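Researcher: Before we compare anything, I want clean individual predictions. No alignment, no superposition, just each chain on its own. First chain goes here; please echo the sequence and then give the structure tokens.
Model: Echoing the first chain and its structure:
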Amino acid sequence: MWKAISIIAFVLVVAVGAKWIADGAQVFSKDKQQVVVVDEMFGTESTEWEDGFWLGLDVGGPVMGVLIGVGVFGLYRSRQAK
């Protein structure tokens, strides 16, 4: 059982890390992001704010740390049970 928990924890660490990298590998989480919009008729550029959530290390780091701790503890418990 502990081995399964540790495998799930390590898979979740990889998933959270991949999400962090896909969101731009920022330090702080963001709820809005600037987007450059080009007007097709005149060719002018303007910036607008796009709503959404982009994961940062301020949230992702502690989550990954806890999951790594759970995974290591699960490996320790699974070896101790034998």
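Researcher: Okay. Second chain, same rules.
Model: Second chain and its structure:
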Amino acid sequence: MLRLFFSALSFLFLSVAAFSQPYDHIITGDYVRKHFALAKGEEVKFEEFKKKTYPTATVVWGVPEKGDALRLKAGVAPSGSKLLVVFAEVGAEKDFERVRATYKDGSPVTGIGRKAVMSEKWKQLSVLLNSKLIVHIHLDHPGTTDLKTKLIAIARDIQAAIK
């Protein structure tokens, strides 16, 4: 009986692992170098892909500063422009309603994914790309003149990369 339980548990784990898709190759320092015009003296100062609550990609760029090394040593990203993407695998499409409810200033966005909502205040776009994947894209970059358009372009790049 115990052997049967562990076999079923192993099957369940392998099934979930098979469903999960690696996202670590999508948002990287190379992505930022390709899609953002880094000003003279700017460089990618930090890039990380880590499973926090959900798989999360973070890239920070800007002019290197003295305090960058200390911040990194303390486990904090350095200051600068920031692109953060969270890949939230969910149980069902209805889970997107919880996302929508968290945005007090959320406005619907059409033309990307099944559903999308944008928060100017949070500088974030959340997109239901398929029935089981919500992507949250946060961009804090002073050089961005049209935040909504830029976030939608990033969402389209992510959507193309996971097909």
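Researcher: What stands out in the second chain?
Model: Strands lie at 43-51, 55-62, 81-89, 107-108, 115-119, 124-130, 133-140. Additionally, The chain is about 35% helix and 30% strand.
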